[in-house]
Every structure is written in C-alpha cells, then in structure tokens.
Input
Amino acid sequence: MEMLYTKTILTELQNFYKNQLLNDTIPFWFPRSIDKEHGGYLLMRDQDGTLIDDDKAVWIQGRATWMLSTLFNTFDQKQEWLEGAKSGIDFLNNHCFDTDGQMFFHVTKEGKPIRKRRYFFSETFAAIANAAYAKASGDKNAADKARFLFGKCIEYATTPGLLPSKFTSTRPAKGIGVPMIMINTAQQIRDNIGDERCDEWISKWILEIETDFVKDDIKCVMEQVAPDGSIIDHIDGRTLNPGHAIEGAWFILHEAKYRNNDPHLIALGCKMLDYMWERGWDKEHGGIMYFKDVYDKPVQEYWQDMKFWWPHNEVIIATLLAYLMTGNEKYAQWHKLVHEYAYAHFHDKKNGEWFGYLHRDGTIAQTAKGNLYKGPFHLPRQEWYCVQILEQYLNSN
Amino acid sequence: MEMLYTKTILTELQNFYKNQLLNDTIPFWFPRSIDKEHGGYLLMRDQDGTLIDDDKAVWIQGRATWMLSTLFNTFDQKQEWLEGAKSGIDFLNNHCFDTDGQMFFHVTKEGKPIRKRRYFFSETFAAIANAAYAKASGDKNAADKARFLFGKCIEYATTPGLLPSKFTSTRPAKGIGVPMIMINTAQQIRDNIGDERCDEWISKWILEIETDFVKDDIKCVMEQVAPDGSIIDHIDGRTLNPGHAIEGAWFILHEAKYRNNDPHLIALGCKMLDYMWERGWDKEHGGIMYFKDVYDKPVQEYWQDMKFWWPHNEVIIATLLAYLMTGNEKYAQWHKLVHEYAYAHFHDKKNGEWFGYLHRDGTIAQTAKGNLYKGPFHLPRQEWYCVQILEQYLNSN
Output
C-alpha cells in the first residue's frame, strides 16, 4: 500500500502551514489590532477587518498575548511581536482583575468591567500569556504572575464551592473542560518557565480524564459526568462535544511525546481521537459536528449540527500528531479529510483568516472573524503547532 | 382589488386553527404528559412523543398550566383539562419556590432544584397560571397567589438591584422583555381575576416601549437600550429579535382592542409589526430570522439565521390581529405568507405538533418537541388566540 503522506508531502504541508500563519492569519490581526491608546487588542472584527465592537474579551486578550509571545519564542525574534505581547500583558495585568482577585470576562476598551463569569478560564489564559511573555522578555514579574495564577487555577479547580455555581447541589456534575485546560496550562508553564508542580498535576488530570470521562464500553469521551464518573442520563449530561474531546486527545498525545513516547498515553490519546472522530465527523457533508447526544437523542442546543472553526483546528492537530507518532495510515487519511474540508470551507481567500461559523452544509452562517469567543488563537495555534511537529518529525526521520 | 381574506376564508381559517389545536397540538401533549406520581408535567419529548428527559422546566410548567386552564375557561369545560391544570398548580406552588421566595428555573421530576436564574420569568408564568386556574376552579388561594406574584413581579421589574445582575454597572441596559412580559401578565390577570393595578401599569409599560424601544427614524424596535432609551452601539446592544418585537406588537394591539380600538395603540402596534417584518422576514427562503443586527453587522450568535417555531406563532397572531383590526390588505398577505410557511415547514404531519428548530433553508435542525424552552405554549396559544379573534370578528362583521 502506498503511503498517503510521503516526506515530500509532509514538507509541503509544513510550508503550507507556515505560509498561512505568517502571510495570511497573523497579518489579518496584527499590527492593526494593537490598541496603542489603552493597551491590549481590538479584535472584534468583520470579515474584511472592519471593527464591529471595541470591547475586549479577556479570554482572547490572554490568548493573543500568548500567541504573539510564542511566535517570538519559537519562530523569529521580531520586535513587533514582543511589543505587541507587552501591550496585552500590561492590559491584562492592569485592567482585567477584580478586587477579589478573580478576573473579568468582558471589559470595555479602557478596561472597565462589563461582565465577570463563574469560571476561571480568563485566569488560565492569563497564566499561559504571562509564562510565554516571561520567556520572550525575560521579565521576572511575568514569570511570578504566571506561577501565581497557575496556583490560583489549581485552587479553583480543586476546591468545590470556591467559585459560585450555576447549578444547585441536587445533581452534582463535573466537566472535562477543567482537567483539559489545566493540562494545557501546565504544559505551557513547564515549557516556558518551568515549574515543579506541573508533571504531577498533569498526571493527575490525565488520570481523571481516563478514569471518569473515557468510556470504553460505549467508545465515547463524555463532556460531563457525575463526580464518580457515572453518566448523568439527562439532556445536559448526555451532550458530547467531539471537537473538544479531540482537543483533549492531542493534549494527551503531546504529553506522551514529552514523556519519551509513553505508550500508555499514546494509546489513550489515540482512542479518544478514534471514539470522537466516529461520533463527530459528518459523513454526509464533511466537517465536525458541534454537539451530539451520547445515545443519539436530541440535544438542547438547536445549532448542534453547525460547523465551528475551532473544532477543525483541534482535529487537524490531533490527526496529524497521531499520524506522526504512530505512523497509522488511518490518521493520515483523517488529517487529509479534515484539513481539506477546513481550508476549503472556513478559509477566507479574499481577506485572510477563517470564518467562524458554517451551517451544516458548509455555507457561511455569519461573517465575524472576531467576537467574544473568536480571535487569534485556535487557527494560528494550529498552524504554529503543526509547523513545529512537522519540523521535529522531518528532522529526525 | 379582490380581498384575500373573504368571510368564507376566515371561517375556514378559524376551523383550521380549532382543528389543529384540539386534534393535533393538545393531543400530542395530553393526557400523557401529566405526571400522576409527582404532579406537574413531563414535557421534554422527542418528535414521536418519547420522553427524552424527566426534568421539569419551571417556565413550561407554568405555561402548560395556564394553557389547560384557559382551554377550560374559554373552549369547553372538560374535567381532564381542569384536573390537568390542578396538577400543574400544585407542582408549581409546592416545589418551584426557593426559601427566599424566588422561583427556580429547572427542577427534577420530584421538584428538587437544579438551577435558579437571575430573571423573574418563572414568576410571571406562575402568576398567569394561578390566575387562569383560579377562574377555572374558583380557588381563592390561586387568585391570591396570582395577585401576590404579580406584585412581586412589579417589584422585581421596578427595583434595580433587587435581583443579581449578569453585568456590572459600567454600561447599564434594559431589555424590551420586561415591559412586554409584564403587559401580557397584567392582561391575563385582568381577564381572569381582575386587579385594579393592571390598567395603569399596562399604560406605563406601553409608554416605556413606545418612548425607549421604538425608533421611528430607523424604523426599528430595539431589543435592548440604555436606561435613557439610547442605542448601545456594541454587539449586544445592536442585536434585534424581530419575532420577539412582533410579539410585543400584538400585546399592544390586544390592548388597543380592549380599549375600544384605541387608535394610538393600533398605530403603535402596527408600526412595530411593520418595522420588524421588514427586518425579520427572510425574502430568500421565507420564515422569520431569529436575530438581526440593527446596522446589519454580524451578531454574536452564530445561529442567528435559524427559524425557530415561536416567532412564527407570534407573527401569525400579530398579522391576523392587525388585519382584523385595520382591514389593511397588506396584513392579510403577510399572514398568509407566514401561516403557509409555518404549517408547511414546522408542522409534523406524522406525529402532530411542530418541530422547534429549522435551518435557514427550512430543513429540520433538531427534532425535540419539548425541552427546557419548548412545550405546550406558543403553538397552542397561537391556535387558541386566533380562534378567539376570528370568532369575535366573524360574529360582529
């Protein structure tokens, strides 16, 4: 059987991702999005780059800061990336914290609070932003801030009731989002500034995912379970998010790589990808469906069959990483499918970057490139990460 | 010019709605949804009636109780409707209130709380349920409860800060939802048990909508504005909900009818309908779009072009009522368009009732007939209300 991905093709792929990242994705956002007056970034933009709102989403301020710092650390020490990152760090640290130490979710361009939420995702993104910026700049305060925020996130993640809950205690539940984001946060802290807490915590969170969320009997990764790992047979409890679970799969494959290709972690990451590809890939139209019910009942969300940009970024990473780590031809085929679907349907060939939201049939549902949830993160991270793993693979094979 | 809606056609329409209501919509839900063990209703059902979740959404428990009581009060004194309504009243009053007097949003089948929200819509639906049930049963306690809850809703609606807010005070905003729901609540209280507070409050809320939400210069009804009625030029502030505004239009037309065809209120209701039909009706595929930006920019919600069942129910009522009150042929044409679109695309000819969620192109996006937000309310209310106004019209013309 002929190999789908020869070294020549993998080299072309590496060039493709690098070219997209540096000549299409990043130039859509920078330098125009850097807010020279107030610091931070103005990222809520329509397809052609027109600003549709000058508010700032704190998640995205942190993620953009991380991305610019990471490009500086790994690609090219461009002064404009470092200065851009500093603008984000200053805005995050000066304007995005409430007096109780919790971060806001949504602020005005000047940094006045609009909304705080009952989650600590703002904090995880500020942690990785500070860690990557500390490495880029050598700023010790940023490293301290990253470590402090990482500690706070561990506290939030492990202390029930510390943050107010949306639900009563009648039917307790936990989501895969917390161990997932914490694995990625710890990996970023470890890569950029080192922290002796990381390895142990990463092992614990992977074990929690493996023990409580991965269900081999029904070949599924749950999005939410009861505290003991049992399936909650109500609409919310049954709702799966295949793209999210597959993001979790590549965080675990990444950890396997860090741990000298730990075979147990490779097997775990691959089976998570296998289970959720089967549930998420749309065999009729192509692309990854947003939500599915574990027993194929209707979910609460009416837009469950839409195609969002970010699951495609995560599945492109997961399938390529699984292929490079295992050589299993199936993953090359899946990668080719999702890569071709995504660059054909999401990529805006005229203005650069990707549209965020397609109908199930692949037509564009709305044109914003940036809003409260979308900005320079999943797409540039995918292109950057794929360049990195392809480079490592091609250099050692 | 020939009239589109002759008396013969209007009589056929009346028979059609009555037949749908009594032989298609109501039998989908009752008697099977009455929970004989715990009281209340089991309403989260798939297209064929299969129960997909035995939780209870408090809004819908109240709305279903109101609907059964109202059918008893206005159509036919069927004992099963009265007994069904009693089951809802008992469940609401025994299980859906927190110790602080606020109502829950989502409870288990036994009535254990799952979630409480920062709004008082559960209370408005419990108020109209108790009012209609009081009329049906003669139960004085239910009438007292309805009046008490109406008073609490007035207090919540007029006391800033009494309920916790989702947003900070940086950019204060108010929604059209509060005056709208309060107009309808007051109308129901007045119709069923009478209450001297109603007329004055209804006038105040209509004035607030007219003064702060209706924008003649741009021919628009805003969903949200600043406290002084100015447009908030950010994504949330710009987002319109045409079906919701048109529901507000028919509440005002209904009030105009009650007030001896008050010409100012007829003009107000009709222009709200005119403005939002123009913005909401999908000229390409038919049907009412869910969200639009006031300046045609992208909205935050990616599913903004989906077709939901309930805006169609509200637009069917508004266009028919506007036609019957004004004789303006345009409204007959619009009514015919939306009625034909809705019964062709939403109605489940096999199992009865309507699907809730279509893609923009009219295909079905998800099959649930009942969930946290959908149940026996908008559709049976539309069919019931249209029968009533057609009967009144045909009897007096």
